[in-house]
Design goal:
The complex is a heterodimer of chains A (118) and B (108).
Chain A: E1 3-7, E2 10-12, E3 18-25, E4 34-39, E5 45-51, E6 58-60, E7 68-73, E8 78-83, E9 92-98, E10 107-108, E11 112-116
Chain B: E1 4-7, E2 10-13, E3 19-25, E4 33-38, E5 45-49, E6 53-54, E7 62-67, E8 70-75, E9 85-90, E10 98-99, E11 103-107
Parallel strand pairs in B: 2-11
Antiparallel strand pairs in B: 1-3, 3-8, 4-5, 4-9, 5-6, 7-8, 9-10, 9-11
Classes of the chains: A mainly beta (118), B mainly beta (108).
């Protein structure tokens, strides 16, 4: 059974950095494409970034390009999101999601809340 | 980027009644459309993919239809556990993968 657990969220002042992690289990992580998706309080879903199974290909939303970096460590079954130069508008719950054979967001973690505030 | 527009924003339905949710894409996305259900405080859950295929464990009262730019999610007889927010999402043109703004299905 697919299990995704995000961690690393918290409160950070504007301009600072945070690194989110997503621990994966129950599937062959090293063969899976993985996404980060966020949801601002009371708002809808916004795709952030995707990474190929081996980390060689990455794509980002324009809103975070140049500030956020997606990466993975297949030896640790873990996905990361390095968030630099944080802005108040980055405040959201951040979800990791696994790409399935049929659908791009087949399984989701429970999310981790990031609050950017002074 | 593909803009996904959902209507209505809120749908008030009595238990046992039928609910019909709409999703429109700003240009044709073929059949590359998924629906997700999100309950308060929970992560989204995949409901449908490729317009009309139910994800694992999704009951048959959920059905999807449409192609190109117009899509519909139908819940044939609403159960208490179905009251939630529903999002459509396209995966024909990426990046970015884009979601609609959501339709909240509430108890009438």
């Amino acid at each position: 059974q697919v299990h995704l657990v995000e961690s690393g969220g918290g409160v950070a002042p504007p301009g600072r950095s945070l690194r989110l992690s997503c621990a994966a289990s129950g599937f062959n992580f090293s063969s899976a494409l993985m996404h980060w998706v966020r949801q601002a309080p009371g708002k809808g879903l916004e795709w952030m970034a995707v990474i190929s199974y081996d980390g060689s290909n990455k794509y980002y939303a324009d809103s975070v390009k140049g500030r956020f970096t997606i990466s993975r460590d297949n030896s640790k079954n873990t996905l990361y999101l390095q968030m630099n130069s944080l802005r108040p508008e980055d405040t959201a719950v951040y979800y990791c999601a696994k790409v399935g054979s049929d659908a791009p967001f087949e399984s989701w973690g429970q999310g981790t809340l990031v609050t950017v505030s002074s | 980027d593909i803009l996904m527009t959902q209507s209505p924003a809120t749908l008030s339905v009595s238990p046992g009644e039928r609910a019909t949710l709409s999703c429109r894409a700003s240009r044709s996305i073929g059949s590359n459309l998924a629906w997700y259900q999100q309950k308060p405080g929970q992560a989204p859950r995949l409901l449908m993919y490729d317009v009309s295929n139910r994800a694992t464990g999704i009951p048959a009262r959920f059905s999807g239809s449409g192609s190109g730019t117009e899509f519909t999610l139908t819940i044939s007889s609403l159960q208490s556990e179905d009251f939630a927010v529903y999002y459509c999402q396209q995966y024909n043109y990426w990046p970015p993968w884009t979601f609609g703004q959501g339709t909240k299905v509430e108890i009438k």
